[in-house]
Structures are given as C-alpha cells and as structure tokens.
Design brief:
Keywords: Signal. This protein has one helix spanning 2-38; strands at 41-47, 49-50, 59-61, 64-70, 73-78, 90-94, 101-102, 106-111, 122-123, 127-132. It is an alpha+beta fold and 134 residues long. Strand 4 and strand 5 (73-78) form a beta hairpin.
Length: 134
C-alpha cells in the first residue's frame, strides 16, 4: 500500500511540473500576442470608465481586453485578478450599471456560438488609453 501511495505522489508531482511548464508557455505566447497588438502605440492616461459603443466589442489578448474606438486609439483593460483565462473564441458579456463600462463592473466570458456555460464573474480593471505613434 505504501508503494502505491508513493507512486501516486510522484505522478502528481510530475503532473504539476508539466502544468507549470504549460502555463509558462501559454503566458509567453500571450505576452507576445499582446506586444504585437500594442506595437506602434504609446500608453497615455488611465481612465476609470469608457464608452461601450465601440463597434465589434473587445478583443481578448492575454490578460487584457482591447477596445478600438478608432484607428489611432485603443483602450487596454487589464482584468482584475482571479478571472478565468481568456481564449480568443470567447465573448465578453458585461453587466452595465450606467451608460459606460467602468472599473469594477462585472462581466462573464461565454463560448462563441452559444451552448457553453458562462464563466465565473470577472471585474474590469482600469482602462489605459493608447495612441498610435505618428
């Protein structure tokens, strides 16, 4: 019985190492994708709220939501911690408590095309405005 317990413990430890390596690869890919999306833009002011009428909704990139109101401007929102990981095939469903999307408003992620269970609630962080370099 002790031998069996040791084998299970070793398997769990090896599985944990693989998960950490997979997470590191995912994070590196996410960081590259975000760097590419922000290439040619300079960060500016930080806002607590933005207008939600941007066409097309947010683009999910790594731990961020990118809103593009115009060609020369985008807003990056770094989502509050403890939100499930983003995947590019999800849709953000926000709960608005006014006419704007604001820091600490709640949202959920839903699989595109329906049929999925919404994620746990997440909260918007601050919005950082980025302007296109000229």
């Amino acid at each position: 019985m002790t031998r069996w317990t040791l084998m299970l413990a070793a398997t769990a430890l090896l599985g944990g190492c693989a998960t950490a390596a997979d997470e590191a690869k995912r994070q590196a890919a996410s960081d590259r994708e975000l760097a590419e999306a922000l290439e040619g833009y300079t960060p500016g002011r930080t806002l607590d709220c933005i207008d939600p009428t941007f066409a097309g909704g947010p683009q999910l990139v790594g731990d961020s939501l990118l809103y593009r109101p115009s060609r020369g401007t985008l807003y990056r929102n770094v989502v509050a911690p403890n939100c499930p990981g983003f995947r590019g095939d999800q849709v953000v469903v926000a709960e608005l408590y006014g006419s704007r999307i604001c820091r600490n408003d709640r949202f959920r992620l839903v699989q595109r095309g329906g049929g999925g269970i919404p994620s746990a609630y997440c909260r918007f962080g601050p919005f950082v405005e980025y302007k296109k370099d000229r």
